[in-house]
Amino acid sequence: MTDENKELSFEDAMVKLEDIVKKLEEGDVPLETAISYYQQGMELSKLCNTKLQNVQEKMTMIMNENGELQPFDMLEEE
């Protein structure tokens, strides 16, 4: 992953990824360029997935009265 991509926000990475997909869908991209776009897209996809997983992990934790994070278990009402 390039250093430039590591600092992207999720939203910026998604915009770049959508731009790459649009270029590839147009179909008039030379093979070498398409391969480069594909590699960039895979890096951006991995970055977005990692950011989503980090948020998901944070969403499953809740801070207790001592300021410590603990797993959040939501009980379903019957």
Automatic annotation (TrEMBL):
<protein>
    <recommendedName>
        <fullName>Exodeoxyribonuclease 7 small subunit</fullName>
        <ecNumber>3.1.11.6</ecNumber>
    </recommendedName>
</protein>
<keyword id="KW-0540">Nuclease</keyword>
<dbReference type="Pfam" id="PF02609">
    <property type="entry name" value="Exonuc_VII_S"/>
</dbReference>
<keyword id="KW-0963">Cytoplasm</keyword>
<dbReference type="InterPro" id="IPR003761">
    <property type="entry name" value="Exonuc_VII_S"/>
</dbReference>
<comment type="similarity">
    <text>Belongs to the XseB family.</text>
</comment>
<comment type="function">
    <text>Bidirectionally degrades single-stranded DNA into large acid-insoluble oligonucleotides, which are then degraded further into small acid-soluble oligonucleotides.</text>
</comment>
<keyword id="KW-0378">Hydrolase</keyword>
<dbReference type="InterPro" id="IPR037004">
    <property type="entry name" value="Exonuc_VII_ssu_sf"/>
</dbReference>
<dbReference type="GO" id="GO:0006308">
    <property type="term" value="P:DNA catabolic process"/>
</dbReference>
<comment type="subunit">
    <text>Heterooligomer composed of large and small subunits.</text>
</comment>
<keyword id="KW-0269">Exonuclease</keyword>
<dbReference type="GO" id="GO:0005829">
    <property type="term" value="C:cytosol"/>
</dbReference>
<dbReference type="GO" id="GO:0009318">
    <property type="term" value="C:exodeoxyribonuclease VII complex"/>
</dbReference>
<dbReference type="GO" id="GO:0008855">
    <property type="term" value="F:exodeoxyribonuclease VII activity"/>
</dbReference>
